[in-house]
Each structure stands twice: as structure tokens, then as C-alpha cells.
Write a structure and sequence with these properties.
Blueprint: H1 2-10, E1 14-16, H2 35-41, H3 45-51, E2 52-54, H4 79-94, E3 121-132, E4 138-145, E5 149-155, E6 180-188, H5 196-199, E7 210-218, E8 229-230, E9 240-246, E10 251-253, H6 255-258, E11 297-299, E12 303-315, E13 320-324, E14 335-340, H7 344-348, E15 372-374, H8 402-409
Antiparallel strand pairs: 1-2, 3-4, 3-14, 4-13, 5-6, 5-8, 6-7, 9-12, 9-14, 10-11, 12-13, 12-15
Protein name: Large ribosomal subunit protein uL3m
Family: Belongs to the universal ribosomal protein uL3 family.
Keywords: Ribonucleoprotein, Ribosomal protein
Length: 410
């Protein structure tokens, strides 16, 4: 009996097969058995397994649900066969009908109340560069390239179980049941390197398999049709974004490298084998190492989010974003998630008439953009540094000498 109760408590979401006349309480398709009803009818564990089955929730389109790597690559193929396989792969994806042949989905309207959440993009970190503003002040920016981004799939809010949902970016509880999930992939790859199950995730979008997948939570009014490409012009110059990436993995490091400790004294003061040590950790009344004590350990390789980074510049030809700061998390050539800033001060500046391209930038809208887009307060290198339009130059009438200058001082 206790085992049956334990089974009920662990399976919160169950679907009943028993008839409704037995006292089952309906609750929007998700039901449970009252404890008093269990004590009265004395169901065994075997009867519970026969009468109940677990709900099969929609599995998210992510690479951890299917086996990604494995399979069909054969190194013993002749060059003629390899070229033939390349032609087959090319023809397979060029002749495939795209879901965009009927045009994109109907665009929604940007609203501030209720809140509008757009999708993000996947970027590749390239490095840092110095830039100057119009006042001559120098600052550094990080270059992030948006390579071959496409929308893979969309899951409506009704198909998502927010109780057991794992997200790398925390989702506010008030958004549960109000946002859908948009899967975005970056960097198309050879389908022969992946399994058939993984390649099947991209059939609906009509695109080749992607090397990297991630998911963004969006409101229903900012949904994008699967197969739609995403560009760097998804953002505007002067906007603020949040960047999330996995920091550089430094391995096992000591306290001097991990936390910046000073270390022990030098040999001149009689220190022996104490140059880079931490010091005492167990002194005090409790005679134990307190939780949270900074000790040597693994450094880096953690998800880090930086909020409120300004977009200073955009290159539309190569899809490159110039983000504020040289300390954007992640190594060079590492992937990062870029999304609209969630800071309250930044969101308040967006209005119904002043907002980024919604739901994203569509080249077929007819708006032609320049190759280089700049923010208002950044210096353009193709502009002169000083203009003399309002300056009048007058010749000197008299020439002062040192003697006259000395007489005036007296």
C-alpha cells in the first residue's frame, strides 16, 4: 500500500484509464487519486500499473534527446564516390521544398503591456578591437559573427511542461504557460556526419543539419516560421543585449590564480613551502572548514551571462556585431547566445513605435541597408577629425619682440 502511494506522489502528471464512476477527480486532463479513495479500495502496486500510464509530454527538439554523432561516414570511399555523394547531398537539399514558399507567418504587433519577448541568435566570438567615440575616448569591443542561423522548430506554450523544463537561462514564474519555445540552429554541416534521428529534426524546416542548437522562449506575437534565416540586423545599433556563453576552462587552479590571493612571503623572510598556499582554513571555534571557503579547484567552464551590452556597430555583409567590452565570456571561436536585454531600464526605452525589427529582419521587405551601420556616438573613420568651417584666420598686423614684452610686464 505504501508503495502504491509512493508511486502516486512521484508521478504528478498521470492520465487515468479507470471509469469516471469510481471517484476520479478531473482537473483539465491531469488527474490524481485521493488518498481516502486509495484506502477504501486498497489498490495494489500491480493494479496501479495496469490502470495508470505516464503522460507522454512533447519532447523538445534539442540534440540531447537524440543521438547526435554516429554513423554513416566511410573513410574507405574512393574520390569518385565521395564526389558523387557530395552531389547527392547537394541535390537533396536544393530540391527540397522550403516551408517559406508560402511566405512567412503573419507578423504580430509589438506590445509593451503585456511584455513582448523576441527570439535570440547564436553567435561565434571572433576577438576584440579598439574603437573611439566622437569625443576621442578609446574603448574596446568584441566581435561576434552570426553564422548561418535558421529557425528549426517552434513549440507552442500548450505543449511545454514548465514543471520539468530545464533551461540555461532562468525563466520567470509569471511567464509559465505564456511563452512558446523557438529552436535556433547555427552553422550547417554535412548530414553524413550525424545520425538519421538527428537529421530528422530539420526536415520540417527544410534546412541541412546544424552543428549547434539552442532554444529561446518567445511570446506568441513574435513567433517566426521554421526555416527563416536570422541575420545580425536582427538587432539595431544602439540597442542593448544580454550575452550568455560558457567561460574559458582553465582546469584545476590554486587560490592565487582562481581568486587572486597574495600568497605567502618570499624566501627572504624564512618561508618554506608556503609561497603559493592559501593559509589556515580550520581555525576558530567550530574546528572545521566552513561552507563557502575559497579553496583550490576547477576554474572556468561555467555558464556566464553579461547583461546590458551595447551594440556599437553592425557589419551587414559578414553579419558581425560589435558588442561593448573586451570581457565577453567564452573563448575565441566559441558559441554564445545573444538576446534582447532583460534589464528594466533598457526595456523601458522600447515603445510601440521605437523597437528592433519585429519579429526579425526580413530582406524581402525591400529596405536596403548599408554595409556598415554605426551607432550615433561612435566615430566613423571615413569622416574628417576636425572641420574648419566656422573658424576665421586673420593675418598678424604687428610682431612683438621680447623687449616690448618685457616693458609691458613692468
Amino acid at each position: 500500500m505504501n508503495r502504491a502511494l509512493q508511486t502516486i506522489s512521484t508521478r504528478l502528471f498521470t492520465r487515468p484509464v479507470l471509469p469516471s464512476s469510481l471517484g476520479i477527480l478531473p482537473n483539465a486532463g491531469i488527474n490524481f487519486i485521493p488518498c481516502a479513495w486509495i484506502r477504501q479500495h486498497k489498490l495494489t502496486d500491480q493494479q496501479m500499473r495496469l490502470r495508470y500510464k505516464k503522460l507522454h509530454w512533447h519532447k523538445f527538439y534539442n540534440d540531447k534527446w537524440v543521438q547526435r554523432r554516429g554513423g554513416g561516414w566511410d573513410e574507405k570511399m574512393t574520390p569518385e564516390n565521395q564526389s558523387f555523394m557530395q552531389e547527392v547531398v547537394y541535390e537533396t537539399y536544393t530540391n527540397k521544398e522550403s516551408p517559406l514558399k508560402d511566405g512567412p507567418w503573419k507578423h504580430g504587433e509589438y506590445t509593451t503591456n503585456p511584455e513582448t519577448i523576441r527570439t535570440g541568435v547564436l553567435g561565434l566570438k571572433l576577438g576584440t578591437l579598439p574603437q573611439w567615440d566622437k569625443k576621442g575616448r578609446k574603448f574596446h569591443v568584441t566581435l561576434v559573427q552570426i553564422i548561418d542561423n535558421h529557425v528549426v522548430n517552434y513549440t507552442p506554450p500548450e505543449m511545454i511542461n514548465f514543471r520539468t523544463l530545464f533551461t540555461t537561462r532562468p525563466l520567470r514564474r509569471d511567464l509559465h504557460g505564456k511563452v512558446g519555445m523557438l529552436v535556433v540552429g547555427a552553422l550547417s554541416s554535412d548530414p553524413r556526419k550525424f545520425t538519421r534521428a538527428y537529421n530528422g529534426l530539420f526536415e520540417q524546416a527544410g534546412i541541412p543539419p546544424k552543428r549547434k542548437l539552442t532554444r529561446f522562449f518567445v511570446t506568441p506575437n513574435s513567433v517566426i516560421k521554421p526555416g527563416t534565416p536570422l541575420y545580425a540586423t536582427h538587432f539595431r545599433c544602439g540597442d542593448y543585449v544580454d550575452v550568455q556563453a560558457r567561460s574559458i576552462d582553465f582546469g584545476f587552479q590554486g587560490v592565487m590564480r582562481r581568486y587572486g590571493f597574495r600568497g605567502g612571503p618570499s624566501d627572504e623572510y624564512g618561508a618554506t613551502k608556503f609561497h603559493r598556499k592559501r593559509g589556515t582554513v580550520g581555525s576558530g571555534r567550530k574546528h572545521k572548514i566552513l561552507p563557502g571557503t575559497r579553496m583550490p579547484g576547477l576554474m572556468g567552464n561555467k555558464l556566464v551571462m553579461m547583461k546590458g551590452l551595447k551594440v556599437w556597430r553592425i557589419n551587414t555583409k559578414y553579419n558581425v556585431l560589435y558588442l561593448m567590452g573586451p570581457a565577453v565570456p567564452g573563448p575565441n571561436h566559441g558559441y554564445m547566445r545573444i538576446q534582447d536585454s532583460s534589464l528594466y531600464e533598457r526595456k523601458q526605452k522600447l515603445t510601440k513605435d521605437n523597437h528592433p525589427p519585429f519579429p526579425t529582419y526580413y530582406p524581402q521587405d525591400g529596405k536596403i541597408l548599408d554595409e556598415e551601420l554605426f551607432s550615433d556616438d561612435i566615430y566613423h573613420f571615413d569622416q574628417p577629425t576636425l572641420t574648419l568651417d566656422d573658424v576665421q584666420i586673420a593675418p598678424l598686423t604687428t610682431r612683438r619682440t621680447t623687449a616690448k614684452t618685457a616693458q609691458k610686464k613692468k
